[in-house]
Sequence to fold (327 residues):
Amino acid sequence: MKTPVRVAVTGAAGQIGYSLLFRIASGEMLGKDQPVILQMLELPMEKAQAALRGVMMELEDCAFPLLAGMVGTDDPMVAFKDADIALLVGAMPRGPGMERKDLLLKNAEIFTVQGKAINAVASRDIKVLVVGNPANTNAYIAMKSAPDINPRNFTAMLRLDHNRALSQLAIKAGVDVAGIEKLVVWGNHSPTMYPDYRFATVAGGSLKDKIGDEAWNRETFIPKVGKRGAAIIEARGLSSAASAANAAIDHVRDWVLGTNGKWTTMGIPSDGSYGIPKDVMYGFPVTCKDGKYEIVQGLAIDDYSRTMMDKTLAELEEERAGVAHLL
Ligand SMILES: NC(=O)c1ccc[n+]([C@@H]2O[C@H](COP(=O)([O-])OP(=O)(O)OC[C@H]3O[C@@H](n4cnc5c(N)ncnc54)[C@H](O)[C@@H]3O)[C@@H](O)[C@H]2O)c1
Ligand SMILES: O=C(O)C[C@H](O)C(=O)O
Fold:
């Protein structure tokens, strides 16, 4: 039996939490032979804590063989104690008519508090995924609030955008999602993101050539992927939850267990690659191996791509300036 991995999940009684926890406990994130201890954080309010107790009762009722323990708390110092992995989901979601950056100041403080708690009590090797919006800048805030943890261990979720782009491409090209490789979504988890399939392949050939429709790329595909979150809020009256939880599982699973040489997209602090200033939390193409990610290097950036990549970068720099006083 392997040693249990401690997984902290914030916002555990929320919509995403409800789609996420049961899949982690069943082994879908870390493997079917990996026991987990769930350390769940919710707000110190009776309603939130009662809802969390209910979720924990249901987890108990599943009798998951891999669930080696559970902690429910309103204290970040308890939730992050010795945590190996943290999924920072707890934050306010946007409603109709809002942009994710409208949440910036409302949610920013959560990530300074939680970054500091992670710095104080978590495993020195903790892997952090920020889901709560605006995810990139919240991840940046958490990273800067935890100076004793390697900044590379803080990441933001671009995987939902990556998965959304994959499905739209598969539908357009009439191919299986599983056959598409070498896709990337550059930049911010916001409508400025740049889903880029110039390098993508399907059955060994170029997906871009197969689709052969640059007008569709610019006028339909890019805006559709960028505004998908808003379309779901419009349709459901609530922001995406099951697909967001699914993307979080994909992100952490690939980071921990590896991608076998395949590309995925992660929001990570830039190391200066592709002209993105150091530390900006930006969506990059990566491969993962042995619990580490590496940026895919050497991709040609044409003029249109440079413009798109700089636009989403400018938005991230603006968001970063807006929270500078908190750091
Ligand atoms: N990055 C992405 O791709 C992506 C996708 C979907 C949603 N999101 C974001 O994820 C966040 C959560 O969405 P949701 O639909 O689960 O929202 P929700 O309102 O259903 O749940 C959020 C939960 O977080 C809790 N919470 C709030 N502040 C907290 C804190 N400081 N500590 C611990 N718990 C706290 C709330 O009590 C609530 O139970 C939102 O910010 C949403 O915009 C991101
Ligand atoms: O769009 C939102 O506000 C929720 C989430 O970020 C999404 O992309 O579905």
User: Anything to note?
Assistant: The first helix runs from residue 15 to 25.
